[in-house]
Design goal:
Belongs to the transferase hexapeptide repeat family. This is Acetyltransferase. Keywords: Repeat, Transferase. This protein starts with 5 loop residues before the first strand and ends with a strand. It is globular. The mean pLDDT is 96. The longest helix has 14 residues, at 72-85. The chain has helices at 14-25, 72-85; strands at residues 6-10, 30-34, 44-45, 48-52, 63-67, 93-94, 105-107, 112-113, 118-119, 123-125, 130-131, 136-137, 142-143, 148-149, 154-155, 160-161, 166-167, 172-173, 178-179, 184-185, 190-191, 199-203, 206-211. The chain is mostly beta strands. The protein has an eight-stranded mixed β-sheet with strand order 6-8-11-14-17-20-22-23, covered by helices on one side. Strands 3-4-2-1-5 form a five-stranded mixed β-sheet. A five-stranded parallel β-sheet has the order 7-10-13-16-19, with no helix packed on it.
């Protein structure tokens, strides 16, 4: 959570701009963006600009950071590189329109819950998780680190989502299922059985397509 610090957003893409929109609505002082595309240096969005590459985070140790990049694997790589270089502090942001009771939902560092999402009871959300707008997460769900839920994902109760999993826009997960680490459920899919590690499933009902690396 933000502790009266400034925020630096890593990534100047669409998600980064959405995080900026959320942070300003929460009254958080956004110091700027970091992005490794040199052509973006100095580019502005809503009063904040790209102030350096990702490696320059060390110049902003008085700030907290959030990795606003949709790909779980890219978020892992950026976090790991930052940890090798030092000890960054990561912010956790929850949109004020999200229905999230922190007595019932635990959220790890660096995670983001966007507008219109509902989380019910006995839910565990790991670190550096991105939950996009209008998702629904039911009771006793575990979401491990570096998971991405695209907009309008619906997860029923007693589901276990392992680390670095991606759930596409509008996909649905039946109750009681397990999604293996590094797996992917495609846009609009309806999952009715477990997914093993690093597999891509797609369709209604969702079926195995190929390995997902």
């Amino acid at each position: 959570m933000m502790l009266n610090k400034k925020l630096v957003i890593i990534g100047f893409g669409g998600l980064g701009k959405e995080v900026h929109w959320l942070a300003t609505r929460l009254g958080i002082d956004v110091r700027g963006f970091l992005d490794d595309n040199p052509d973006l240096l100095g580019e502005q969005f809503d009063g904040s600009c790209v102030i350096g590459s990702i490696d320059s985070w060390k110049d902003y140790k008085d700030c907290e950071f959030i990795i606003a990049i949709g790909s779980p694997r890219v978020r892992v790589a950026i976090r790991d590189k930052m940890l090798i270089q030092g000890a960054p502090s990561f912010a956790t942001l929850v949109d004020p329109t999200a229905v999230v009771d922190l007595k019932q939902v635990s959220i790890g560092e660096g995670s983001l819950i966007c507008a219109g999402t509902t989380c019910t009871v006995q839910i565990v959300i790991g670190a550096h998780v991105v939950i996009n707008p209008h998702c629904s997460i039911a009771h006793e769900v575990v979401i491990k680190d570096f998971v991405t839920l695209a907009p309008m994902v619906a997860i029923s109760g007693n589901v276990y989502v392992d680390s670095v999993v991606e759930l596409g826009t509008g996909s649905c997960v039946r109750q009681g299922l397990n999604l293996g680490a590094g797996s992917m459920l495609g846009m609009g899919s309806v999952l009715t059985k477990d997914i093993s590690q690093s597999k891509l499933f797609f369709g209604n009902p969702a079926r195995y397509i190929r390995e997902w690396k």
